Amino acid sequence: MASKGGYIVLGLLFLAVLCQLGHSLQCYSCINQVNCTSVVNCSHNQDACLFVKAVPLKFYHQCWKYEECSFEFIAKALGEKELHYDCCQKNLCNKSGGRSVSEKMLLLLTLLLEAVCHFYR
C-alpha cells in the first residue's frame, strides 16, 4: 500500500504541471550582449530558451523550439560556423548558458533518491 505522502507529492507535481500549461515561457532576448536583461514572452510554438556563444565572440539569447535544439540547425539558422549552445525549458533559464553540470547531477540524484524511497515503502 502506498503512503499518503507519496500521493500528496504526486498531486502537487500534477498541479504544478497544470499551472505551467496556461503560461507562455519567458526567455531573455538579446543579440551580442553578455549580460542580457531584456525579457520576452515566447510564442506558443517556442517551448525553449536558447543561449548561444558563437566564435568569434558573439552571444544570442532568445526563444526557440526545443525540437530544433541541435548544433546543425542552430548554426544554419544563425549563420554561425562555430558555437556552443544550451537549450532549456524554464523561465529565464538562458541568462548565461543554462544549468551547470553540478545542478544537473543534483536533479538526477534527487529523482533517483525519490524513486528508491518510493520503492522501499
From TrEMBL:
One Gene Ontology MF term: complement binding
Transmembrane segments: none
InterPro entries: CD59, CD59_antigen_CS, LY6_UPA_recep-like, Snake_toxin-like_sf
SMART domains: LU
Keywords: Disulfide bond, Glycoprotein, GPI-anchor, Lipoprotein, Membrane, Signal
Record-level GO cellular component terms: plasma membrane; side of membrane
GO BP term, pick one: negative regulation of activation of membrane attack complex
Signal peptide annotation: 1-24
Subcellular location: Cell membrane
Membrane topology reported for the UniProt record: Lipid-anchor; GPI-anchor
Domain UPAR/Ly6: 25-104
Gene3D superfamilies noted in UniProt: CD59
Subunit record text: Interacts with T-cell surface antigen CD2.
Protein name per its UniProtKB record: CD59 glycoprotein
Native species: Bison bison bison (North American plains bison)
Gene behind this protein: CD59
